[in-house]
Amino acid sequence: MSNHLNSSNYNFKLIYLIIPLIVLVAGYSFVSAQASKQVTVTAVVPEKPPLEEPDTIIIFSGIAYPSSTVTISRDASVISVITTNSQAHFQVQATVDPGTYTFTIVGIDSDGIEGKISNFTLTLSEGTTTTISGIFLGPTITIDNTSIGPGETTTLNGTTVPSSEVNVTLNYTAAAAAAGDPHIAVHIANADSNGRWLQLFNADDLSVGSYDANAQAIEPENQSVSETSKTVSFDVVTGEEEPDECDGMVPGDLNCDGYVNLVDFSILLFYWNSTDPANPRADINSDGLVEIIDFSIMLYYWTG
Ligand SMILES: [Ca+2]
Ligand SMILES: [Ca+2]
Questions:
Q1: Which of 54, 56, 158, 294 has the most CB atoms within 10 Å of its CB?
Q2: Tens-place pLDDT, residues 248-270
Q3: Right CATH for 244-304 from 2.40.10.410, 3.30.2350.20, 3.40.50.1010, 1.10.1330.10
Q4: What is the mean pLDDT of residues 29-36?
Q5: How far is the CA of 300 from the centre of ligand 1 (A)?
Q6: What is the mean pLDDT of residues 23-47?
């Protein structure tokens, strides 16, 4: 077909369209400013119908994840599975019937993590060659802990274009946010030469509540900005909300080891006659005093 397109028998008209990429996660100035990235759609149309109608061709090119696969589907039917190079670039050409289609593009990184799906709805006229260039899929993202308490961390990581800057946007979603608490924070991570990025959050640096996070990459060559990644969520909880090992243990099992025995009895003696024992389970009947009644309840549950 390229012979036809380059032939001097035809005059070609170049339709050059710039469409802004739809950024699904918007609503705050930082990402809006960074989302000026654009995908270019170019269509080459023969001015006069040739004797034999040339094929209708669509070309996709862009960035996904290094040495990984990109799957392109047309109305949910896979039309092409391609491999990216070590710098995450891909280009593929497909011949399709004319018509209006929704194309979806999704990458799976070399760790098997699927990125967020990108969509394009296009009308392809017969005999045109349409090129969609500048596609930049959002980074892949995974999270290791979805609930963290004091001193605990959660790590977000994934893959994008090598040596890019990755902006991780943390969104505090709790309704009862403390006054003055920033609801949005952007953390900068840097992808290594294999495209792997990582961002760690420590519960001690965050308010108790629920968080959403996603990532966008800025590739080093042209400073173009990727689509957003999928969104991951995690909760920061207080120490008291951590699982209590004494939940479900019988009264009298003061050290919560599943037995009521001499160990529990020695703990009871330690707190004997106290009104506010450091181990509140020692006051078995919760009447404010560790005494003979508690001992008799302990004997009732005695397992030895
Ligand atoms: Ca015990
Ligand atoms: Ca008592």
A1: 158
A2: 899 999 999 999 999 999 999 99
A3: 1.10.1330.10
A4: 28
A5: 14
A6: 46
pLDDT reported for residue 5: 38
Kindly report, as residue ranges, where domains of CATH 1.10.1330.10 are found in the chain.
244-304
Q: Say what the pLDDT of residue 50 is.
A: 59
- Distance from the CA of 259 to the center of ligand 2, in angstroms? 20
Q: Is 275 exposed, middle or buried (0-12, 13-18, 19+ CB in 10 A)?
A: exposed
What spacing in Å lies between the alpha carbon of 283 and ligand 1's midpoint?
14
CA of 252 to the centre of ligand 1 (A): 7
- Domain span(s) for CATH 2.60.40.10 in the chain: 2-136, 142-241
Measured in angstroms, how far is the CA atom of residue 294 from the centroid of ligand 2? 5
Which has more confidence, 43 or 123?
123
Is 50 exceeded by the pLDDT of residue 34?
no
The pLDDT score that the predictor gives to residue 76 is 86
The CATH number of the structural domain formed by 142-241 is 2.60.40.10
CATH for 2-136 is 2.60.40.10
Instruction: State the distance from the centre of ligand 1 to the C-alpha of 267, rounded, in angstroms.
Output: 9
Q: Which pLDDT score, from 0 to 100, does residue 40 have?
A: 76
